[in-house]
């Protein structure tokens, strides 16, 4: 085989290989990896999270994230209604949300979705609410379950 024939054959082979690679990377029906289309992880199940209120989330507006759940103190008393617990993954793309005490809402830092303390969507792009969890208190121990 002559040099120019070899280079031509090599060029055709590379072009075919690159076309296959580009096709594999192109947008397809499953949209895997396309921003805004990846589903968030499912909310935690079989939850049994405990928090010692003598040592954690002692002040109104403080929060704790553990086991895929964010727990927030909404009022000063140690009663279940003074707290809320929701999944910590935004229902839009799964980024970890935080609690804004000044807004009294959960906020996703990635795209700005906002949720009420009960988990309802207040501002999108999220369209699904956060899963809310049950809270019980015995003495100074707060327990979150689903």
Textual characterization of the structure:
- This protein has 146 residues and is an alpha+beta fold.
- It has one helix at 3-25; strands spanning 48-52, 63-66, 69-73, 83-87, 98-100, 105-107, 114-115, 121-123, 134-138, 141-145.
- The strands form three sheets. It has a four-stranded antiparallel β-sheet with strand order 5-6-7-8, with no helix packed on it.
- The longest helix is centred in the first third of the chain and has 23 residues, at 3-25.
- The chain is elongated.
- The N and C termini lie far apart (72 Å).
- Residues 14-36 have low confidence and may be disordered.
Ordered list of secondary-structure elements with their pairings:
Layout: H1 3-25, E1 48-52, E2 63-66, E3 69-73, E4 83-87, E5 98-100, E6 105-107, E7 114-115, E8 121-123, E9 134-138, E10 141-145
Antiparallel strand pairs: 1-10, 2-3, 3-4, 5-6, 6-7, 7-8, 9-10
The averaged pLDDT comes out at 82
The description of the largest β-sheet is: 4 strands, antiparallel
**Helix count, DSSP H or I runs of 4 or more residues:** 1
| Residue runs with pLDDT of under 50 for 5 or more positions | 14-36
Which descriptor suits the 3D outline?
elongated
Note the main attributes of this structure.
146 residues; three-stranded antiparallel beta sheet; alpha+beta; 1 helix
Question: What is the structure about, briefly put?
Answer:
Helices cover 16% and strands 27% of the residues.
């Amino acid at each position: 085989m002559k040099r120019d024939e070899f280079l031509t054959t090599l060029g055709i082979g590379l072009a075919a290989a690159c076309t296959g690679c580009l096709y594999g990377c192109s947008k397809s029906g499953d949209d895997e990896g396309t921003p805004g289309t990846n589903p968030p992880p499912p909310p935690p199940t079989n939850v049994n999270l405990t928090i010692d209120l003598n040592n954690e989330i002692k002040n109104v507006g403080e929060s704790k994230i553990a086991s895929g759940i964010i727990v927030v103190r909404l009022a000063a008393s140690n009663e279940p209604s003074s707290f809320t617990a929701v999944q910590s993954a935004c229902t839009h793309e799964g980024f970890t949300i935080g609690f804004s005490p000044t807004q009294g809402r959960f906020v996703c830092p990635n795209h700005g979705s906002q949720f009420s303390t009960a988990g309802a969507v207040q501002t999108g792009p999220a369209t699904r609410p956060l899963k809310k969890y049950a809270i019980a208190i015995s003495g100074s121990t707060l327990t979150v379950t689903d």
